[in-house]
Amino acid sequence: MGELRIGTSAWHDHQGFYPPTLSSTERLRFYAQYFPVVEVNSTYYHLPSVHTVEGWVERTPPGFLFHVKPPRLLTHTPEHPGAPSPAFDPNVARAFREIVKPLQEARKLGALTFQFPPSFRNTPQHCEYLKRLREFFPDHLIAIEFRRRDWLDERHAERTLALLQALGYSFTMVDEPQVGIGSVPPVYAVTNPQLALIRFHGRNAEKWYHVGTSSTERFDWNYQPAELEEWRPRINRALADAHAVHVLFNTNAGNQGPRNAFLLMDVLGVPHPPPPWEHLSQPPLFSE
After folding, report:
1. DSSP 24
2. Rounded CA separation 17/36 (Å)
């Protein structure tokens, strides 16, 4: 059986999860007392300093893992039809490798999580782009998430998954609204037995395409036990097919991320420390 880790996308916000007097610099340390994995998505917008990343290493316990998104320059695609592949800038790739090096050296780096937008169409050019990623990140675990249905519909899914398997990439399974070409079905696949990655984006179909919607609004969703129960067979199957299964909640209104993560643990019968909003006076399970 593989190792199951459940966490959230980012740790900075989660209003209502952290004690009100806790400083922002101590939030990661607090988060790591409850969850063993986190996704870093701020790197999509700008790269932090190496010193900042070294601080992440220092404030987390041994064995804690970070999945890190690459800069958007490496995944962004113009929206117009026939758009070219993202402009792969070797300098950006090199800078990104340097930034994650402290995590890699501390054995705290999970996957580089490439999330491609709906404009990243299933074309021969974009397939070649996926292949090129390995040239610039030869020693890294890479996870790929699609946001366009033509990669994973009945006609193309088998070929897409075979490509990821051949490249040694982990396919990112997702739970999200099923509303047109800019969403993908919850396809099950483990394309690299080293890691099976699952991201929960909520099911807010009303806001998925709404113009001007913030990410907080788009991913505003309180999961119900029955919705998470749907994923039990796939999670159990992934635990049999992969060495590690990581589940991340990208629901980020208030403290939805931690709440949904704790709820999944309850659904699956995974032990966890009492949520801080219930037992603030009790020390977390992982405290030293």
Report:
1. G
2. 16
Pairing of strands 3-9, 65-68: unpaired
Q: Which residues pair with 247 in a beta bridge?
A: 6, 198
Of 186, 197, 183, 147, the C-alpha closest to 39 is 197
Residue 97 CB partners (closer than 8 Å, separation 6+): 136, 137, 140
Structure tokens at 126: 């974009």
Environment class of residue 213 by beta-carbon count within 10 Å: exposed (0-12), middle (13-18) or buried (19+)? Answer: middle
Instruction: Please report, rounded to a whole number, the percentage of residues in the chain having pLDDT higher than 70.
Output: 92
Structure token pair of residue 43: 């790197």
Q: What stretches in the chain show pLDDT beneath 50?
A: 281-288
- pLDDT tens digits, residue range 79-121? 655 555 566 788 999 999 999 999 999 999 999 999 999 999 9
- Give the SS3 label for residue 26: helix
Please name the residue that has the structure tokens 């290493």: 57
Instruction: In whole angstroms, give the CA distance from residue 56 to residue 101.
Output: 12
Q: Are 223 and 263 in contact (CB under 8 A)?
A: yes
pLDDT value at residue 210: 74
Residue 18: is it exposed, middle or buried by C-beta count within 10 angstroms (0-12/13-18/19+)?
buried
217: left (phi over 0), alpha (psi -120 to 50) or beta: alpha
CA angle 251, 257, 262 (to 5 degrees): 135
